[in-house]
Amino acid sequence: MTAETGIDQGRSAFREHRWTDAFENFRDADLRGGLPAPDLDRLAVSEILTGNITAGLDTLTRAHEEYLVVGDVVGAARCAAWMGMELMNVGEPARAGGWFARGQRLADELAEPDAVQGFLLVPVGLGKLYSGDPAGALETFSQAAEYGRNFQDKDLSALALLGTGQATLMLGHPDEGLRMFDEVMVAVTAGEVSAIPSGIIYCAVIGNCHLAFDLERALQWTVALDRWCNARPDMVAFSGQCQSHRAEIFRLHGAWAEAMEAAAAAQGRSTRGDPQALYGGFYQQGEVQRLTGALDAADGSYREAARSGYEPQPGLALLLLARGEAQQAQVMLRRAAGVADVATRRNLLPALVEIELAASDLEAARRGADELESFARECPMPMVRAVADQAAGAVRLAEGDPAGASAALRHAWKLWLELGVPYEAARCRILTGRACRALGDEPSALMDFEAAHAEFLELGAAPAAAGAASLMREGADDGAKSPLSPRETEVLRLVASGEGNRAIAADLYLSEKTVARHISNIFLKLGLSSRAAATRYAFEHGLAE
Questions:
Q1: How many CB atoms lie within 10 A of CB 325?
Q2: What is the spatial distance between Cα 393 and Cα 401, in angstroms, rounded to a whole number?
Q3: Is residue 94 classed exposed, middle or buried when 0-12, 13-18 and 19+ CB atoms within 10 A define those classes?
Q4: Are residues 453 and 495 in the same domain?
Q5: How many other C-beta atoms are found inside a 10 Å radius of the C-beta of residue 533?
Q6: Per-residue pLDDT reduced to its tens digit, 30-46
Q7: Omega before 314 cis (within 30°)?
């Protein structure tokens, strides 16, 4: 095959999004006789998308130099801009800054305005966005958008609109920001935007939808991203971020085994060419581990997530709370919320209210709940309303207003059910049960506790199930229903007598595997972690001879 044939086949594969074929054909043509600058550019994109980031950056450098050789300053400046953005993506800000400076110097040499000058504004806007200046970022992205319109550059227009939406969201205007995300996604899903900007936009929009508590939008765009990635099976870039978004959706909807699988897939892709998946892959894994009671494993996952440069919050603070370190959790999350932009702070508020209540700072909890209520009035989406009502109910309960708490909590519970978020729905049932108990309605309280306990057991949320079981026992009389089945009670009695699994199996005509499963269920339902603790429980509750 001649170099010319390889170039033609590479261009064809590139147009059809067959990145591996494009890479192989361009590489072979390059070895046979070299590539012109635009095809070096295409080879670099193909390498980056298939996970060969180092090779892609080297090729992009060659493309930049080739553009300079042939006198194409615009092409060289555009390569410099993309080099900077890719280096930022892999965590090399110093090298990225050098390439941005080179691109800007070349753009300044142009006799006439060009779209590349708008591209070089995008990293400037991102710098302002992530340094806490969303107003400055909004102005910069608006300037970039003007270049996109003037030069009819769809990639630039889309990236500028994405940045404008992010800045608008961070300034505390979620409805307006979300409308901008919908608009930019129209261009992406219509195929108007090239591959790398499309991937950037997909992942950023989904992440910001979660930040704005818009679960329905996040779900819709995650499904769209999944389809987009599946249509490009050899694409590594962005596929890991897709898996981390899937992990978050699975976790919220109670499919925790599937969430762990998706998180593991994201972690794998993060080392194969999608480094931005590192945070989400480990953070979502840590969240499931925390909720299931694997606290040491969760701590390790959060630490891995932190290697990305992003704080693993509010998960890490909630982990401290689960370990009984309420004061430290309070200090940690107050600090994180105090330096966060408006959108990120709102995302931290539900956990902050929970921690303030655990730390017995009722005034601070009330301020957090009021802030969520203000957000819900401004942006009355179901998930925002649910977190605001849940926080309000928890605070009212602590303030001694169980009747007011019950009304807010019932509404929050209904919204969580409609959203398909079972863990939070069950947490609302626990709070509602406590309100009923405070009002003297013990039968209703027990029904709420039992329903929450069953849901926690189904999810595998061991700490929450143990808490529900404890509440059930608090109000139970001697004849009240035990959380254990008759068979589990029988197994517990034999455990307390000192028998091992083999002896218990022989006594009850069961397999050792079945006995082990019963003991695991007993530990989960009662919040126990050892046979000694189970024995103590059995004697305390009159179950041992």
A1: 16
A2: 9
A3: exposed
A4: no
A5: 13
A6: 998 889 999 999 999 99
A7: yes
Please provide residue 420's backbone torsions phi and psi, each rounded to the nearest 5 degrees: 75, 40
Q: Considering the entire predicted model, what is its pTM?
A: 0.82
Please report, as a single letter, which amino acid is at residue 324.
G
Output the DSSP codes for 111-180: SS--HHHHHTHHHHHHHHHHTT-HHHHHHHHHHHHHHHHHTT-HHHHHHHHHHHHHHHHHTT-HHHHHHH
543 in the same domain as 444: no
Tokens of 472: 């059930």
Q: What is the dihedral of CA 25, 28, 29, 32, to 10 degrees?
A: -160
Length of the chain, in residues: 545
- Count CA atoms within 13 Å of residue 320 on its CB side: 21
Does residue 6 lie in a domain region? no
Q: In the structure encoding, which two tokens stand for residue 393, read together? A: 């109910």
User: Distance between CA atoms of 348 and 288, rounded to whole angstroms?
Assistant: 18
Distance CA 256, CA 461 (A): 10
Torsion angle of the four alpha carbons 233, 235, 238, 243, in this order, in degrees rounded to the nearest 10: 30
Exposure string of 7-24, with b = 16+ CB inside 10 Å and e = fewer, is bebbbebbeebbbebbbb
Domain extent for 474: 369-383+392-483
Cα torsion 400, 402, 403, 406 to 10°: value is 140
CA distance 406 to 431: 8
- Gyration radius of the chain's alpha carbons: 28
Domain end marker among 464, 483, 502: 483
Distance CA 112, CA 45 (A): 28
Residues of the chain with pLDDT under 50: 478-479
Out of 263, 285, 307, a domain closes at 307
φ/ψ of residue 106, rounded to 5? -65, -40
- In this structure, the answer to whether residues 400 and 501 fall within a common structural domain is no
What pLDDT, on the 0 to 100 scale, is given for residue 478? 44
Using alpha carbons only, what angle is made at residue 406 by residues 400 and 410, rounded to the nearest 5 degrees? 155
Total domains, the chain: 3
DSSP-derived secondary structure letter, 340:
S
Q: What is the helix (H) or strand (E) element at residue 427, kind and residue range?
A: helix 422-438
CA distance 211 to 178: 11
Q: What is the pLDDT of residues 226-260, one digit of tens each?
A: 999 999 899 999 999 999 999 999 999 999 999 99
Q: Which residue has the tokens 């009002």?
A: 439
pLDDT of 476: 60
Angstrom distance (rounded) from CA 444 to CA 31:
77
**Euclidean distance between CA atoms 376 and 415, whole angstroms:** 13
> What CATH number is attached to the domain comprising 449?
1.25.40
DSSP state of 484: S
